[in-house]
Amino acid sequence: MPVTWSKPTPFSIHIPDARIQSLQAAVEAFDFDHFDSNILSTPISEGDFSLGLPPIIAKRLVERLKSGYDWRKYERVMNEIGNHYIVQVDGIPGESEPLKVHIIERRSKREDATPIVLNHGWPGSFFEFHKLAPLLADPPNPDDQAFHCIIPSMPGYTFSSPPKSHGWDGYKVATAVDAAVQALGYKIYLAQAWRRFGLGNIQPSGFRISRTMQRNPRVSCLIFIKQNKQSTPRSSTDLNAIPFSYLPTEEQKANMSPDEIRGLEAGAEFEKSGSAYLKMNQTVPYTVGLMLASSALAALFYIGEKLYRWAAPESVLSIDDVLTSALLYIYSGSLTSTLWLYVAPTFVDHSHKKIDVPSAFSSGRADLLWAPKAQAEEQYRKLLWWRILKEGGHFLALEKPELLAGELREFASKNEVKKSLSAD
Prior knowledge:
alpha/beta, Rossmann fold, 10-stranded mixed sheet, Epoxide_hydro_N, Epox_hydrolase-like, epoxide hydrolase activity, hydrolase, Epoxide hydrolase N-terminal domain-containing protein
């Protein structure tokens, strides 16, 4: 059965007052005094995440929710990112009914604008791009490259409906997202995900599915994948997350740059002290989901810890950005469904595939981990650059939107990219 899609239906975000009031009542009733005083009195600085979310940050989040935070304000911010739509996608194998995909389009006023798909992962959402999209679509400098920004919500995230069948993997997600992009009329586009960019040509794109965009010779979407060994058919290597089993030889390490060595060391540290959530999301997603869905504050702390911990220390994420990011999961009822891809049962390693399309990698200096340049070049035969930026962490679009916009413009300006976009 071929994959088909409906005409995009306009959509706007509006959470019912009763839902907001219910959450506010739960927050008002929360009292830190009920917690173990020995834990809360332990002197832990707000920058020390060795034991999880520091209590001082948790208290700050709760206090802001109790007084000062305005959901309606950020609802307006989200609605103004661009035009929101819902696209019904049918024909995905295993799905007995159409999947609802939420997608945002912010078109530039410039006729020479290039389409770009901005993809998120967990624990992110389309909200990550509320600062980046305006910079790309309407650059202050008329000499800067402009972009038509397309921002999908992955199936099961926020306002996209979750899959109903078992066996969902990156390819199915990619198929659904690409169908929604095509429904907006885009045939060829660039694609970006946090730190990686490439070309797209009516092929799948999305979280954990960068590798599914490589079948067409002009396709490259470089999306964050938790582990390379969890790749899917039509695949390519991920340039950020390295497989935990990857152990370079001493000879290989001797030829690596300091930044490549740092990426390996960061990966080893992440596996040791930062990957507990990964194991939980993979092995007991229903338990995690039920706990988070039963308590808005539990969800806030679980998601907030990742946003604060994975950002660069100097980035100082806005407390309202953290609250809004978490509340999107809570209000949309997608706390459990966003974990589904962690347990996708059809992971296959296709890291041996060679990719012959223009691709690039830029990572924040404080990101979690990244693959060595030599490993990336083995698979990406047209890797235009591999660079570690001087600033930023895991959420560049939120932390350093101007920096990321510059990287994207540089990529779009390359002759290899222009030729691929203009080729038949």
